[in-house]
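Hi everyone,

Forwarding the result from last night's run.
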Amino acid sequence: MTASSFNRHHFLAAVTHQLEQTKDDNNLSALAVIDIAEFQKVNQTIGYSLGDQLLDNLFTRLVSVVKNEAHCHRVNGDKFALLISPLVSIQLIPLLAKKIIDQITRVFVIDNHRVQLKAHIGFAVSTDKPSAEQLLLEAEAEAKAAKRKKISYSLSQSSSYSQSSALIVLERQISEALNNNDFALFYQPKICLSSQRPSGAEGLIRWNKASDLNISSEQLVATMERCGQMPELFRWTINTALRESSHWPETHGPLSVAINLSASCLQQDSLFEQIESSLNLWGGDPSCLCIEVTESAVQEDMSHGLNQLNKIKELGVKIAIDDFGTGYSSLEYFKYIPANELKIDRSFVANMLDSKVDMEIVKLILEWGRRLELSTVAEGIECPKALEILCELNCGFAQGYHFSKALPESEFIEWLAKFDSNQYFDQHLTHPEEHLPLR
C-alpha cells in the first residue's frame, strides 16, 4: 500500500476501535503526528513525482515501527499519524520518538537522489479517554509546538498530565543518578577468532534502578537524549571506561575498550577535546580505545560528523561503524568515512541460519570489509553453529551471549582469569552447555 491508501475516516475508525480495546484492558494508546520539515524544498529539488515516491517509502518505514498498516496514515500532505497501541507506559515515549526519528532521518535514495528528512513529532496519550478526533487534534497541536520550539518531539500535557508527571520524575531521577555516579559500565567480551583470545570488550551503560523502574537501556539513553544530557553521559562513560580498563594489561595483556557515541554527541564541537583530555588523564593508549557510531548518527550532519571522526582517528583512536547494514550503505559513503571496523548488526547474524537472504548479507558485509581493509565484528552470536560458520567465512571478531553477556567490571575480570584459549574455544564450538559463564 502507499501513503495515500487510507483516508482520515478509516484511520479514526481504527483509532476508535483500539481505544475501546485498551480501555477494557486498562492500557494506554498513543497517537503520534509527524510533520516533515521543509518538504516543499524536497519537491522543488527532485520533483513532485519523486517526492510522492519518497513519501511512499517513508510510509513503509513508519509502518515498520507500529507493525500495522492500519495504524499508519498520511494525514495531510507531508504529515503522517501513527497509532501506538497498546502502550505499556508513558516512559516509552522517548524510545518511540527515537525509533520514529531514526526511520525518518535515515537517508533515502530516490532515482539516484540522496535525500535526508527531518521532522517534528507531536504525541498525545489516551489517559483521559478522549475521542479519536480529540486525540488526533492534540497530537497535531503538539507537532506544531515541537516545530515552534525547534525540538524533535512534544508530548501533550492535557491528555496525559499524570503520566507525563511520571516522565518528569524519571528524567529527574536519571539526572540525579548521573550526578551521584549511580551508573555502571558492564563489559561484553569481544573475541578475536583467529587468535582464539579475548581482544577487548564493549562498555555498555547500566543503571542499578533500571530494573525496579522497568526501564531498558534503550529507554535510558533515549530519555537522556531528550533531557540533553548525552554529552555528560559520554563524558562519564569515556572516563569510566579508560579508568577501569587502565589496569587490564597488567594481568591480561593489551585489551581494547569500545564505547558508543550518540548522534548528539557527535555534533558537539568539544567532542575531540573531551576524548583527548580523557586519554591524557588516564594515560590511555589511543589504539586501545574504540568509538562506535552508527551510520545514521554520521548522516545527521555528514560534513561535521566526518570531520569529527577524522580528527578522532588522527589521535590513533579506532572508529567502528555499529549496527552496519541497517542504515544507508554505499561505496560512495565509505570513500569518506574514517572507519577501522564494521560491526555486523545482530539481526542479520541471529537470522542467518534460517534465512538465505540474511546469510548472503553477512557474507556481503564480510567481503566488503576485506575489500575496504576493515576489521569485521559479528554481534549477537548465540549458538556454536553460528560461530562455526563465521569462522569458516573468516570473520575477524565476535560478540554475543554464546561467549558472555555484558558483565560488571569485577565479573569481567573474573571471566578473563578463567579464560583458557584452546579449551574455552573448543567448548564453545562443541559443548555449548559448558559455556563460561552462562548468560
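Residues 8-166 form a domain with the Alpha-Beta Plaits fold (CATH 3.30.70.270).

Cheers,
N.
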